[in-house]
Amino acid sequence: MSTVKIPNGHQTVMPYLMLDGAIKFKNFTTTVFSGEITSTHYQEDAPEMIKHSEVRIGESTIMFCDSRAEWPAQPANMFVYVKNADDTYKKALEEGGTSVMEPADQDYGRSCGVTDPCGNVWWITSVL
C-alpha cells in the first residue's frame, strides 16, 4: 500500500463545516479552545463571508466556510479533549455557547456539552 501524501498541519480525515456565520465559529474556536487560524480566504464578492478557513486545535485541523445556496449549513457534533473541562465549559458559555450537558464525572473523564453560536455541539472532556 502506498503512503498518502498529506499537507503539513493536516490529518488523514478532517471535518469540513459549512456554517451560517462562520466568523462566529472562528472567534469561538480561537477563544474557547485556543485554536490557531492557519488559513483564511474571504469571498471576493462578499468580503465578510469566509470562502475557506482552517483552525488548528491541538493536533487537529478543522476546515470551515460560510454556507451558500449550493452548500447549505451543516453543523456537526465534535468531541474534544481539553486540560480542564469545567474551565472550558465556562469559557464556551461566555463566548455565546449554550449548555447541552453540565460538567459531570463519567467513566471516561470529566465531560460536558455545549452548542456553539453556529449550531455545532462540542463534547468537551478532560481525562481524570
Task: Tell me about this structure.
- There is one protein chain.
- This protein has two helices and eight strands; from the N terminus they run βαββββαβββ.
- With 128 residues, it is of the alpha/beta class.
- It has a single domain, classed as 2,3-Dihydroxybiphenyl 1,2-Dioxygenase, domain 1 (Roll), CATH 3.10.180.10.
- It has a four-stranded mixed β-sheet, with helices on one face. Strands 5-8-7-6 form a four-stranded mixed β-sheet, covered by helices on one side.
- The mean pLDDT is 95.
| Top-tier CATH class | Alpha Beta
Question: What's the overall geometry?
Answer: globular
Poorly predicted regions are none
- Give the termini separation: 39 Å
Rg from C-alpha positions? 15 Å
Number of helices: 2
CATH architecture: Roll
Profile the largest sheet. Answer: 4 strands, mixed
Helix share bin: 10-25%
Q: Into which percentage range does the β-strand content fall?
A: over 45%
Q: Spatial order of the strands in the main sheet?
A: 1-4-3-2
Structural class: alpha/beta
